[in-house]
Write a structure and sequence with these properties.
The protein has 220 residues and is mainly β. It is 14% helix and 39% strand. The chain has a six-stranded antiparallel barrel with strand order 2-3-4-7-6-5. Strands 8-11-12-15-14-13 form a six-stranded antiparallel β-sheet, with helices on one face. The protein is elongated and about 60 Å long.
Length: 220
């Protein structure tokens, strides 16, 4: 007798709504003692990119760790490695140690809301020349959640999607550390989405004061 080739229907994990960390800082997963960057999260699994170096990972291996949700709180998870490729790891749940639907939906909503707020944040266009001494700045515009800067003539453009860190050096006395993700290339200009919480109102006020000092009408 020919064996039955039909199997019981299974729910496609790809149909789950996912919380995607694509244009913001990735989620943090401490997996077997390794700090991992989570790119998306769903009830049916999560994606880590890249795979943490320092050990060999095997398909089907059972692992566990602690996931830090952007909306707050730590969640202990456990599962099996369902796929390993050049980009990273896919972790699939195999027990109840996983974020519930409500937690994942709240995380997804928070990421969508942050993305809309970033796009709608008012931007401060900066002049090419700044200061009485004519000191140049590579900044083109900046907001509370992002910035755009020009590459130096010999500087290579960072890859879209890569994470960058550096300092905004406005002058010899003013240095602002920043971290973020490259989201777009515009010619020789690079757009970066800053990691939360972004730039504070005090820093934006400093930028306005530095590049757009108020005119002293009494001196006219």
């Amino acid at each position: 007798m020919r064996p039955n080739r039909w199997s019981e229907p299974q729910l496609d994990r790809r149909t789950y709504p996912r919380a995607e960390y694509r244009r913001t800082a990735p989620g943090l997963l401490e997996l077997e003692g390794y700090r991992c960057a989570v790119r998306d999260l769903a009830p049916g699994g999560l994606r880590v990119e890249p795979a943490p170096a320092g050990r060999v990972w095997e398909t089907g291996e059972r692992v566990s760790g602690v996931l830090r949700l952007r909306t707050g709180g730590l969640v202990r998870i456990a599962g099996v490695l369902g796929r390993i490729d050049r980009s990273g790891l896919a972790l699939l749940p195999d027990c109840e140690a996983w974020p519930d639907f409500d937690s994942i939906d709240a995380e997804r909503s928070a990421l969508v809301r942050w993305h809309h707020e970033r796009r709608s944040a008012p931007r401060l266009p900066l002049p090419v020349l700044a200061g009485a001494g004519g000191a140049r700045t590579p900044l083109r515009d900046v907001s509370a959640t992002g910035l755009r800067y020009a590459l130096a003539p010999s500087e290579r453009a960072p890859a879209a999607g890569s994470h960058v860190a550096g300092e905004l050096r406005l002058d010899a006395d003013t240095v602002i550390p920043v971290r973020g993700q490259v989201i777009r290339h515009v010619g020789r200009e690079i757009a970066v989405a800053l990691d939360p919480p972004g730039l504070t109102p005090d820093i934006l006020a400093l930028l306005r004061q530095r590049f757009f000092p108020e005119r002293d009408d009494s001196a006219v």
